[in-house]
Amino acid sequence: MTKENKTIKNSEIAYKILVEPWVTEATTAMMEMNKYVFKVTKEATKTQVKKSVEDLYKVTILSVRTINMPRKKKIRGRITGYKPSFKKAIITLKEGDSINIYEGK
User: Fold this and answer.
1) Cα–Cα distance between 37 and 21 in angstroms, integer?
2) Is residue 34 within 8 Å of residue 68, measured between CB atoms?
3) 39: which of 8, 17, 31, 89 is 20 to 30 A away, CA to CA?
């Protein structure tokens, strides 16, 4: 490992692992149970996701579950294509912690 790799901050890595918060009706209902859903890179592991969320939002995480979502076939007229596959992470926070994903940066 070179000296340059050691100087990289954890928050810089976190922004590369977490793509965006996943906001739907179902995930909004999950927020009441202290569970949050994020779209992450396909190569991200559970420990990387946990460290990234803890560094960015300063919360305590109890568990991380990951799901590989398959690609979906889309037909538009005679043209057939696919929506790309992606990976989701469901994060359970400690009681009392919360993440405000609706605030703008």
Assistant:
1) 6
2) no
3) 8
Could you tell me the CATH superfamily of domain 3-93? RRM (RNA recognition motif) domain (3.30.70.330)
Paired tokens of 42: 């396909």
pTM: 0.80
Place of tokens 């568990």: 63
Domain definitions of the chain by residue range: 3-93
- Alpha-helical (H) ranges within the chain are 3-6, 10-17, 25-31, 46-57
Summarize pLDDT for 23-59 with one digit per residue, the tens.
999 999 999 999 999 999 999 999 999 999 999 999 9
